[in-house]
Amino acid sequence: MRVLIRSFILVFACIPLVCGQGYKAPRMADGHANLNGIYEAVNTANWNLQDHPAYAGPMWEMGAIAAVPAGKGVVEGNEIPYKPEAAAKKKANFANRRADDPEAKCYMPGIPRANYMPYPFQIVQTNKDILFVYEYASSNRLVNMGKPMEAPSDTWMGTNNGHWEGDTLVIDVTGLNGLAWFDRAGNFGTDKLHIVERWNLTDHDHLNYQATIEDPSVYTRAWKISMPIYRRVEKDAQLLEFKCTEFAEQLLYGKYTKGAGGGQK
User: Fold this and answer.
1) Where are the beta strands (DSSP E) in the chain?
2) Separation between Cα atoms, residue 3 and residue 93, nearest integer Å
3) Helices marked H in the chain — which ranges?
4) 182 alpha-carbon distance from chain centroid
5) Alpha-carbon distance 21 to 186, whole Å?
6) Who's near 2: CB < 8 A, 6+ residues apart?
7) What angle do CA 251, 140, 181 make, to 5 degrees?
8) What whole-number distance in Å separates Cα of residue 111 and Cα of residue 259?
């Protein structure tokens, strides 16, 4: 009985970030780790990157349906090192999140938020470049695995240059437009944002994701988030459509429609 209990503890105490250290990922034809698959984060980071209790949502009319579940943070040290004026901006974002959160408006989620929204995404890896396809708002980004490119212009999903460090995919993200939020709590960056992501398989069904975030106009230093991301293992796993623009039209343009006080009558 004692041996069985010990074995049970060893098996169920094993978490992806620890137990996958010796895992040898399957290979692509070019010898690099094969990350192909459909994945999804299972945490509360999209509500709030930091530790948080349960609290009411911005729409009291929806009661508990719109409430925020309690969650453990994904920020290293649980601190986002805002400058004072940026901390005030984050507080204002939170107060106005019902209408101002870009997620509510169906805008592309940006990086890193796209990776931990409560929707699946797919990694399509070739022997040349790597494509990330997100269910939310049909967003995507192409990771250039060749000679690094400078961002030609600022965009929601940025310019993504990748390389391999062993079995870890490292993506350097620049050229972000600074309009995306990191979560529904109003955490944010600007167009000076620079993100370095690290992706590696810890076992067949788990990716370890880490992002180092820098923005000298907002933070006093660089900071990190990390989390496991889970492979969708059902045999018919696939991305479905979530083209949410039509759901946001009233929020965005309702005040301009006839009879709303802002348009022609």
Assistant:
1) 37-41, 121-125, 130-134, 140-144, 159-165, 168-174, 194-203, 206-214, 223-231
2) 53
3) 2-12, 16-19, 84-95, 97-100, 245-253
4) 7
5) 34
6) none
7) 45
8) 38
Identity of residue 122: Q
Please identify which residue in the block is written with the tokens 């169920």. Answer: 12
- What is the phi-psi region of residue 259: left when phi exceeds 0, alpha when psi lies from -120 to 50, beta otherwise? left
pLDDT at 133: 98
Reading the block at residue 18, the tokens are 């620890």
235-259 pLDDT per residue, tens: 999 999 999 999 999 998 888 876 6
Look at residues 44, 168, 175, 67 and name the one whose alpha carbon lies nearest to residue 117: 44
- Is this model's pTM higher than 0.70 or not? yes
Cis peptide upstream of residue 69 (ω within 30 degrees of 0): no
Domains in the chain: ranges and CATH: 31-58+72-248 (2.40.128.20)
Strand, helix or coil at 17?
helix
Tokens of 203: 């076992």
pLDDT recorded at residue 252: 87
Interval 153-186: pLDDT, tens: 999 999 999 999 999 999 999 999 999 999 999 9
CA gyration radius, the chain: 20
Whether 79 has a pLDDT exceeding 50, the answer reads: yes
**How far is Cα 201 from Cα 243, in angstroms, rounded to an integer?**
30
Question: Hey, what long-range contacts does 5-12 have (CB within 8 A, 24 or more apart)?
Answer: none
CB 63 within 8 A of CB 255: no
* Structure tokens given for 151: 């961002």
List pLDDT tens digits, range 108-151: 999 999 999 999 999 999 999 999 999 999 999 999 999 999 99
Tokens of 148: 């690094």
